Amino acid sequence: MSMPPTRPARKAVIPVAGMGTRFLPATKAVPKELLPVVDRPALQYIVEEAARAGLPEVLMVTGRGKAAIEDFFDRTPELETALEKKGDEGRLSAVHESTDVAQVHFVRQGEARGLGHAVLQAAAFVGDEPFAVLLGDDLIDARDHLLEQMLAVQAEHGGSVIALLDVGRENIDKYGAVAVEPTGDGSDVVAVTGLVEKPPVDEAPSSLAIIGRYVLAPEVFDVLRETAPGRGGEIQLTDALATLVERGEPVHGVVFGGRRYDTGDKLDYLKAVIRLASERDDLGPSLRGWLRDFVTELPPEGASPS
Predict the structure, then answer these.
(1) What is the pLDDT of residues 104-131, one digit of tens each?
(2) How far apart are CA 255 and CA 272, in angstroms?
(3) Distance between CA atoms of 174 and 122, rounded to whole angstroms?
(4) How many Cβ atoms from other residues are within 10 Å of residue 59's Cβ?
(5) Contact 212, 140 (CB under 8 A)
(6) Are 129 and 10 within 8 A, CB to CB?
(7) 134 has which bridge partners?
(8) Which of 8, 20, 253, 278 is 20 to 30 A removed from 87 (C-alpha atoms)?
């Protein structure tokens, strides 16, 4: 059994090597992680989340065609100088925020062999400390401190911690699913006793799905090196976590009941943009008014728009 770590997690890993095929043709030229959610890329929200949770060092695992991500988190002296000359302090501050939010490092995955393989590329960066993995398609609302809670659970129990969401049994075949047992830490913290990647609905151990936040013990790297390709011919992080459970290593889950936006799905991406924009002081009042007018003008369900 793993003992609770002597050092808290300080580093975050964000895999960004995916091709973004669901957003073609836009992603022919723009990495999906840089598509704007209102006026900031989805990836900036993720990095800000890591920094808020006390993880100041971030490693992005990239691939071909992702150079724009490195450019985004780099300084842009020409742009900054132009904004300074214009006296545009607001936009200059926004540009600085994107580069100053955390210390961002990059490594290439080389070939797309799954999430587990992407995480394995972080071994040298992480060393022998626990670390967080944040997937760029899942935006967690800044008002919901999921990652902070996961880090606290990991600091108390050691081992690894995964974020869980009840997606309903009818949808569980799209996710990694878990079998769980209650703990004494409240209804939202559970002990994970088994994991399976995208099970048939009638074989799923529960309706609790793994979503894109993990706090992992460094022992996961040794397991990933031994993990054979699984579903889709890829090295699955879910399979490695299942091996840790089988070995008796502690794996806990935090059941999330807050606000999550799936920016990897076109419809959910649009919902995220509308929801986040409607809650902003600068855009919200006008947008909400327009939405009310727009909805009242829509034709009845099933009718063709004029």
Answers:
(1) 888 888 777 788 899 999 999 998 899 9
(2) 21
(3) 26
(4) 22
(5) no
(6) yes
(7) 213
(8) 278
Q: What is the pLDDT of residues 58-107, one digit of tens each?
A: 999 988 878 888 888 875 556 556 656 666 565 555 555 555 566 888 88
Print the SS3 string covering the chain: CCCCCCCCCCEEEEECCCCCHHHCCHHHCCCHHHCEECCEEHHHHHHHHHHHCCCCEEEEEECCCCHHHHHHCCCCHHHHHHHHHHCCHHHHHHHHHHHHCCEEEEEECCCCCCHHHHHHCCHHHHCCCCEEEECCCEEECCCCCHHHHHHHHHHHHCCEEEEEEECCHHHHHHCEEEEEEECCCCCCEEEEEEEEECCCHHHCCCCEEEEEEEEECCHHHHHHHHCCCCHHHCCCHHHHHHHHHHCCCCEEEEECCCCEEECCCHHHHHHHHHHHHHCCCCCHHHHHHHHHHHHHHCCCCCCCCC
**Euclidean distance between CA atoms 206 and 143, whole angstroms:** 28
Residue 31 tokens, joined: 């990495």
**Phi-psi group of 290: left, alpha or beta (phi > 0 → left; psi -120 to 50 → alpha; rest → beta):** alpha
Phi-psi region of 186 (alpha: psi -120 to 50; beta: other; left: phi over 0): left
> Would you tell me the crossing angle of helices 146-157 and 42-52 to the nearest 10 degrees?
40
Question: Do 27 and 19 contact (CB within 8 A), yes or no?
Answer: yes
Hey, what are 237's tokens?
């992080």
Contact, 157 vs 275, CB < 8 A? Answer: no
